[in-house]
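Batch manifest, entry 17 of 40.
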Amino acid sequence: MKGSFRVCFLIIVSFLGAISLAAQQPPSPAPTPDQMLRLADHAQRVSAAEFVLTRDETELGRKADAKIRSKILAALAEKTIAEIDAIPAGTAISQGLSLLSPAAGIGDLTDNLVYFPITPCRVIDTRFIPGGASPIVPGANRNFIVVTSPSGANTFAPQGGSPTNCGTTWPGPAAAMLNFVAVGPSGPGDLRVTPAGSPIPNASAINYVPGNNVANGIIQAICQACGFDITVQADVVPTHLVVDILGYFMFPTTPPTQNLSALVNGATPSIAAGQSVGATGVTKLAGGLYQVDFNRNITNCAYSVTQGDPGVGGSPAGFAGVTGRAGDANAIFVATYNVAGALTDRNFHALVVCPPAPASP
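Output type: structure tokens
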């Protein structure tokens, strides 16, 4: 009884202490009407993005990896609700990936890819497909998955491969390092490989002969937003196919630098493309007033602007100011003045400095 009383006493004291501490905390300020509108708008955009993303996953029969899915969802939610609703069926994943990818030339889908090596793992073995061996037959192209697996299965077993996902992810990989082996062909022939849904190339991945198991390691581009990753075609005679994955290539989710810049000719107005990074356009709103647009959301970035002539150097007397552009998360508002403080068309350089991974506003 004493022990039970002691436990009850301690629980009551702890509870009262918690109430006392809570009473000492100042109440959280109520959100302002503007904050409530922003939160409601963001929730609606996330809901719309979730709908189109789930629609595409259902259509493709593949569930996106949780980490990449959350990034794609956040990227799509940066669009307006009208823009999200207008995304054509089957393209939400690819559009989300393109938003994650930095500007062309800095880790896009065909440049500066990052290699992720994995423990070699079997993804295809047509000798052990459930229900019976199923070689690659000429004239009957076959589609396969080489990164992750069909939605919910998390296994390559339906293709005769590993009962795991081999440590791969989807979507995201632009290419995979694969070791192809032609096993037991009855005569000479070849295998050709292409990203799923793409035209079959003239070049072969393997040329095989009877009596030999011929192997070849290749870096193969894959379809990023398809139900399958690669298509394989056999020529002349059938052969079994064994494929091991050794690693995969992805674009960086964060570019080497997030900083953006725009060198602007104020009179035209126009962007000096060779001396700008991520700037997509400039609009003169009035004399000395400009909107400069960039290729991504810069709400959480810092801005600075100075007057100066593109490619010439020097600066006329005067000053400039910059702030975020109301209603446009991808733009800044710039004002340029002469020395007397009057708005005047001037050439200027705008710099946008962003954190490594800007959060959604």
